[in-house]
């Protein structure tokens, strides 16, 4: 009996501590045309290397007390060299085994916050289940190309495929149509998802309802007056 209680207690402790687990994942990878180096915590980017800007980027929210890794950029560059050499060796050793290609299994477009007309928001294009990384994501607004979007470095899933999240700042206006176009090696045609700003969005009540109400009431009264007028006229004629 005592033993059972003890086991129960232990399993409780285990499950509680499992709730508080954080996963700290470092990815360093390369292909012929792409390389990435990223530190993540609980699926969030803590630091990644921008090989074009030649520096380490720390996209951390303001409440974090700056988790910085001195020498991270140089380290990432060195790791890329190691990765490319390893890749060449593997290719030779495995007699140029074919590269696996997985097209994205999911592409979703949605807004970060509940949509309110005229209030700045973020459109998110979530792409997952692809291999190899990366995907290219481009945006349009009413069929015109838009720039100024951003995208996360590829994040690795449990099954070895990747996820990338693209973001576009936008201000919802009724009737605007946005699209995100996803290109990947394994897709013969780009995958495109659309987002339309619809009336279901909440807009600031402002003066709208009272004007509407006032106009409605006036029209109603005019209707009653006109009806009465014609009723009387009709009676007079007959
Ligand atoms: C992504 O864009 C780059 C640069 O325009 C291009 O070289 C690359 O082929 C594109 N990748 C895919 C999968 O379309």
Automatic annotation (TrEMBL):
**Entry's localization field:** Membrane
Q: How does it sit in the bilayer?
A: Single-pass type I membrane protein
Q: What range(s) does the Ig-like domain occupy? A: 104-200
Top-level taxon in the UniProt lineage? Eukaryota
The record's section on InterPro entries has: Ig-like_dom (IPR007110), Ig-like_dom_sf (IPR036179), Ig-like_fold (IPR013783), Ig/MHC_CS (IPR003006), Ig_C1-set (IPR003597), MHC/Immunoglobulin (IPR050160), MHC_I/II-like_Ag-recog (IPR011162), MHC_II_a/b_N (IPR014745)
Record GO biological process: adaptive immune response; antigen processing and presentation of peptide or polysaccharide antigen via MHC class II
Look up keyword Disulfide bond and say if it applies. Answer: yes
Q: What is this protein called?
A: MHC class II antigen alpha chain
Q: Which organism is it from?
A: Oreochromis niloticus
């Amino acid at each position: 009996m005592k033993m059972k209680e003890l086991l129960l207690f232990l399993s409780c402790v285990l499950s509680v501590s499992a709730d508080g687990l954080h996963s700290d994942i470092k990815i360093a990878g390369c292909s012929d045309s792409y390389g990435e180096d990223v530190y993540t915590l609980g699926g969030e980017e803590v630091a990644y290397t921008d090989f074009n800007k030649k520096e380490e980027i720390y996209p951390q929210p303001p409440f974090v007390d700056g988790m910085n890794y001195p020498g991270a950029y140089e380290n990432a560059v060195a790791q890329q060299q190691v990765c490319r050499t390893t890749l060449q060796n593997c290719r030779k050793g495995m007699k140029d085994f074919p590269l696996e290609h997985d097209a994205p299994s999911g592409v979703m477009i949605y807004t970060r916050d509940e949509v309110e007309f005229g209030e700045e928001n973020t459109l998110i294009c979530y792409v997952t289940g692809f291999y190899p990384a990366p995907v290219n994501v481009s945006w349009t607004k009413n069929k015109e190309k838009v720039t100024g979007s951003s995208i996360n470095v590829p994040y690795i899933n449990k099954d070895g495929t990747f996820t990338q999240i693209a973001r576009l700042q936008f201000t919802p206006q009724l009737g605007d149509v946005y699209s995100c176009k996803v290109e990947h090696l394994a897709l013969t045609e780009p995958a495109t998802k659309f987002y339309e700003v619809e009336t279901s969005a909440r807009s600031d009540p402002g003066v709208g309802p009272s004007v509407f109400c006032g106009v409605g009431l006036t029209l109603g009264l005019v209707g009653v007056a006109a009806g009465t007028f014609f009723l009387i006229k009709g009676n007079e004629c007959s």
